[in-house]
């Protein structure tokens, strides 16, 4: 698999991890039954960790973590806005834009691999 394809898959895994983390928070708010609520939170977190570990196989830990955080932050905020009618301030949108720009900068950066000279 080409390096670019591997990196692209890594970002897909990291975004999936962030979305699953947000789904865990959303399911905790949506359901009143404790069994359903905790069951979905556990399932979403297990899937989130699996996606995150897969993203670490293709990306640096910095790129995977920041992408995961950004996807979680953005999807949680937008879910609050659209599903729960929470208000989001101009600061939130400015912060979201800053995070997105940071993730784009990191995604374009290259991380040099260490080569051991044995």
TrEMBL record:
Keywords in alphabetical order: Membrane, Transmembrane, Transmembrane helix
Domain of life of the source: Eukaryota
InterPro entries xrefs: TMEM42
TM region(s), chain numbering: 36-53, 65-84, 90-107
Identification of the protein by name: Cell growth defect factor-2
Species of provenance: Arabidopsis suecica (Swedish thale-cress)
């Amino acid at each position: 698999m080409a390096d670019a394809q591997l990196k692209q898959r890594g970002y897909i895994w990291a975004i999936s991890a962030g979305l699953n983390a947000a789904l865990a928070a959303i399911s905790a708010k949506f359901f009143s039954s404790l069994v359903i609520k905790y069951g979905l939170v556990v399932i979403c977190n297990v899937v989130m960790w699996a996606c995150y570990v897969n993203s670490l196989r293709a990306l640096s830990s910095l790129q995977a973590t920041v992408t995961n955080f950004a996807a979680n932050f953005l999807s949680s905020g937008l879910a609050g806005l659209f599903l729960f009618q929470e208000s989001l301030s101009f600061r939130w949108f400015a912060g979201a834009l800053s995070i997105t720009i940071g993730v784009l900068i990191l995604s374009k950066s290259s991380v040099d691999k260490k080569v051991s000279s044995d």
